[in-house]
């Protein structure tokens, strides 16, 4: 039973990080991260090896499949690309928590056959988690049920992106306006399909509003932990300035109710003192 928390990135200009080894610094604050950079291109094995070298063995990456697989080919005829990607991330070893299949908003319930075929052929030594954005999966119980059955056959998880707090009231900043235009407005999901549920939560620029909005999620995570599940929660805000602190605050809030959870590490000093 573990609780993993993290952010959508491991570096930010507003975070207290050294000029080098930013991932190593981030891993002293959180124990998981969304690996979004892999969406744009498959990294080299040497790059991935450097990620592993900067993180402790119990750190976890949720690595996003490249867009050529999910958005350009829509999961069709991608066996070679998938295997190349899985080979590239092999240096992560157990740090690879799940392969994140983020599908475009146009990927509809009528496309589930492609997802079912993809998951059926995907190598079983990896865990898979799927994020859908088409409204029918959230508004139509039949579509949701069909997706859950496809995922269950592969022991794959459904990643919800909870934007409820973001859309609770109109944006008040440029960052919030940008998030309003780009983030999906879909119904909240609270159902875990596997022992390793993953939730992406985005709040507001206001820390107080962000924390108030995650009350249900704290209770949900405590319940999942009591069931023996090991959830992963990623904390976002429109500008992500406070995301690092919010991830630790979320973990501390859950730990107050579940004191047997392992503690997060102590953050490294962003700039170690020098002799001169």
TrEMBL record:
<dbReference type="Pfam" id="PF01904">
    <property type="entry name" value="DUF72"/>
</dbReference>
<dbReference type="InterPro" id="IPR002763">
    <property type="entry name" value="DUF72"/>
</dbReference>
<protein>
    <submittedName>
        <fullName>Uncharacterized protein YecE (DUF72 family)</fullName>
    </submittedName>
</protein>
<dbReference type="InterPro" id="IPR036520">
    <property type="entry name" value="UPF0759_sf"/>
</dbReference>
């Amino acid at each position: 039973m573990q609780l993993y928390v993290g952010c959508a990135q491991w570096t930010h200009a507003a975070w207290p990080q050294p000029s080098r080894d930013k991932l190593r610094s981030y891993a002293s604050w959180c124990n998981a991260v969304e690996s979004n950079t892999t969406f744009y291109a498959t990294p080299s094995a040497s790059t991935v090896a450097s990620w592993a070298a900067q993180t402790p063995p119990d750190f976890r990456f949720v690595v996003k499949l490249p867009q050529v697989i999910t958005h350009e080919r829509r999961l069709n005829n991608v066996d070679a690309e998938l295997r190349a990607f899985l080979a590239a991330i092999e240096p992560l070893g157990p740090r690879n928590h799940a392969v994140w299949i983020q599908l475009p908003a146009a990927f509809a319930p009528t496309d589930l056959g492609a997802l079912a075929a993809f998951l059926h052929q995907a190598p079983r030594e990896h865990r898979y988690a799927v994020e859908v954005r088409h409204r029918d999966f959230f508004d139509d119980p039949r579509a949701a049920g069909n997706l859950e059955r496809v995922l269950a056959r592969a022991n794959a998880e459904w990643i919800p992106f909870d934007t409820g707090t973001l859309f609770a009231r109109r944006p008040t900043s440029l960052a919030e306006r940008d998030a309003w235009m780009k983030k999906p407005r879909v119904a909240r999901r609270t159902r875990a399909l596997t022992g390793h549920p993953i939730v992406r939560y985005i709040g507001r620029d206001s820390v107080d509003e962000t924390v108030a909005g995650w009350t249900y999620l704290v209770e949900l995570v405590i319940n999942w932990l009591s069931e023996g599940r090991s959830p992963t929660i990623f904390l976002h805000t429109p500008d992500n300035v406070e995301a690092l602190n919010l991830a630790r605050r979320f973990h501390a809030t859950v730990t107050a109710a579940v004191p047997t959870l392992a503690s997060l590490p102590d953050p490294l000093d962003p700039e170690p003192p020098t002799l001169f």
